[in-house]
């Protein structure tokens, strides 16, 4: 009888628990259950980058293999569900690709070749800005923003990773993190706005100016003028002010 998805999830959970308790062979036992999902994640991260650059030197299979090697260096997983495991793998895959891109860019720049342009599909971040083309420098800035978010807002960072790197639904994220679906949606909205503030100079500048305005009426007047009818930008800045305790 073919195992059900629930059976598979239970088996993965069992292996993760063994891993967390120091079983050195747990990762090897886990890989047959997750390798196809990891290949899908790797292909998703690489597909449009390779298409745009004509670059076949980094393959999904090699990316999964390197991910596996890095997982073997994790002594205690502290992972409770397969969604947590996939979030960890997504982070590893993202870092491998960014390191690869950084090295390749450094080599090409040394040869006098202009900066490459990477499609946003590499990290599925088309929500950051209107442009759908991100430079390598943009991606590195984005990675730094995600690292800062993780350090300051751990849960919100996990929600963002599970949504955009693993592709889970709000219900699946809520189940994985043991929070409500409305909380997932609020966290996701905030995390997106927070990262936009870090990578987008306009959002950052408006937020920085608004923080220093003590009068609520004067602040609202400034926000209306600065956002110039951009409802999405205004919503982002207000949300950031509310969540960081600057706007009641």
pLDDT under 50 segments (min length 5)?
112-134
Mean pLDDT across the residues is: 76
Radius of gyration: 20 Å
The sequence of SSEs as H and E is HHHHEEHHHHHHH
Distance between the termini: 57 Å
- Percent of residues in helical segments? over 70%
Q: Could you describe the largest sheet, including whether it forms a barrel?
A: 2 strands, antiparallel
What is the general shape? elongated
Q: Total strand count, please? A: 2
Strand order of the largest sheet: 1-2
The proportion of residues in beta strands is under 5%
Kindly name the structural category: mainly alpha
Number of helices: 11
Overview of this protein structure:
With 248 residues, this protein is an all-alpha fold. It has 11 helices and 2 strands. It has helices at 5-20, 26-53, 60-71, 82-110, 136-152, 154-166, 170-177, 181-199, 201-211, 216-227, 231-243; strands at residues 117-119, 133-135. Strands 1-2 form a two-stranded antiparallel ribbon. The longest helix has 29 residues, at 82-110.
